[in-house]
UniProtKB/TrEMBL annotation:
PANTHER family: ACYL-COA DEHYDROGENASE (PTHR43292), ACYL-COA DEHYDROGENASE FADE29 (PTHR43292:SF3). InterPro entries: Acyl-CoA_Oxase/DH_mid-dom, Acyl-CoA_Oxase/DH_mid-dom_sf, AcylCo_DH-like_C, AcylCo_DH/oxidase_C, AcylCoA_DH/ox_N, AcylCoA_DH/ox_N_sf, AcylCoA_DH/oxidase_NM_dom_sf, Mycobact_Acyl-CoA_DH. Belongs to the acyl-CoA dehydrogenase family. Residues 130-222 form the Acyl-CoA oxidase/dehydrogenase middle domain. Its cofactor is FAD. Residues 236-386 form the Acyl-CoA dehydrogenase/oxidase C-terminal domain. This is Alkylation response protein AidB-like acyl-CoA dehydrogenase.
Length: 394
């Protein structure tokens, strides 16, 4: 793993750093730090405008091939972008699901017609997407999905329910894993469909979270329709396509995520100095361990990304990375509460206004669940890496 940067890499760093300094000003100055986990509702329309501003300047879809509207940047340069974006405390992106998940999936598996129809809207942030994977009876076990779709004439007809769907209430489209072959089991008989959200037969219900916000949702499909041509890959091969999307989900943006983690940890350390908690040897030991864990996480992420760029099997490595960062971030929330002490037990203002550390503590509980729970990640590691017996299947 070569961590050195070329002159070209540093030129990209200087370009994006300068651009962010010049553009996170004026109408966009107040967006710094807005919209993070548990705060996706913050300044949403303004963040859409910011994303479109990024697109107009060519700072979206950096790794996409130039022929599909991207910049064709390599791994190191994409990492640099996400590092600088996080260091600038720029606002959370609203087009992440389309840009980082669906876009690369369409480039790899979509038809030319699908690419021409959907990639421009993703790149320009004129169409927002959500991910229709988990269900009440199929959370991390995606192969157990029961949402069904049947082909009638020139349309797929969908019936079923999805849950924990991030930002479904603002999305224009949803990519849905549905069972399209009657009586099929597990991984077989699934298809990957692109479904419009604004239509009869689609109902979105918000899920109230511990943070008091509702960026997660339930989606109910009751006779919802999508065009017969809007299946990505071949019908019945949805598992392969869905797994490819999950691989893209754990890409270079995780490096930027870790810069955000470092900022959070620095804030906890500063709080410990301000309120005297740093004098407690147990808390001081916890802060040191958190710093060490963050550095290990960064190096492991770079190693994983380097392996994926050479074609190595990243499935188990991605599971290790997810398990590490999710557990670390949850622990950071707990450490923040210890540092804050008794005031952490009281809302910042009535009726339920949380301070940043309370929000971190509560929302980070979800980190070990979404994107594949810790239990599932441990199963993958034990079975595929350690060769232990498989967990009994129902």
């Amino acid at each position: 793993m070569d961590l050195t940067h070329s002159a070209e890499d540093e030129a990209v760093r200087n370009e994006i750093r300068t651009w962010l300094e010049e553009n996170l000003s004026g109408d966009f100055a107040g967006l710094r730090g807005r919209g993070g986990p548990g705060r996706e509702h913050e300044a949403f329309d303004e963040r859409v405008a910011w994303d479109r501003h990024l697109a107009a300047a060519g700072w979206t879809c950096l790794g996409w091939p130039e022929g599909h509207g991207g910049r064709g940047l390599g791994l190191i340069q994409k990492v640099i972008f996400h590092e600088e974006y996080a260091k600038a405390n720029a606002p959370a992106r609203v087009g992440h699901i389309g840009e980082e998940l669906l876009g690369p999936t369409l480039i790899a598996y979509g038809t030319e017609e699908q690419k021409q129809r959907f990639l421009p809207g993703i790149r320009n942030v004129t169409e927002l997407w959500c991910q229709g994977y988990s269900e009440p009876g199929a959370g991390s076990d995606l192969a157990s999905v029961s949402t069904r779709a049947r082909l009638e004439g020139d349309s797929w007809i969908l019936d079923g329910q999805k849950v924990w769907t991030s930002l479904a209430h603002v999305a224009d489209w949803c990519f849905v894993v549905a069972r399209t072959e009657p009586d099929s089991k597990r991984h077989a008989g699934l298809s990957y469909l692109l479904v419009p959200m604004d239509q009869p037969g689609v109902e979105v219900r918000p899920i109230d979270q511990l943070t008091g916000t509702s960026e997660f949702n339930e989606i109910f499909f009751d006779g919802a329709r999508t065009d017969a041509s809007l299946v990505v890959g071949e019908p019945g091969e949805g598992w392969k396509v869905a797994m490819a999307t999950l691989g893209f989900e754990r890409g270079v943006s995780t490096i930027g995520q870790q810069v955000g983690f470092r900022r959070e940890l620095d804030g906890v350390v500063a709080m410990a100095h301000e309120n005297g908690a740093i004098e407690d040897p147990v808390i001081r030991d916890g802060l040191v361990r958190a710093r060490m864990g963050l550095e290990v996480m960064r190096l492991n992420a770079l190693r994983t990304l380097a392996g994926s760029s050479t074609g190595a099997d990243e499935g188990p490595a991605a599971s290790i990375a997810k398990l590490v960062w999710a557990t670390w971030h949850r622990s950071l929330g707990e450490l923040a509460m210890e540092v804050a002490g008794a005031p952490s037990l009281v809302a910042d203002a009535p009726p339920y206004d949380l301070d940043p550390w309370q929000r971190l503590f509560l929302f980070a509980r979800a980190d070990t669940i979404y994107g594949g729970s810790n239990e599932i990640q441990r199963n993958i590691i034990s079975e595929r890496v350690l060769g232990l017996p498989r967990e009994p299947r129902p």
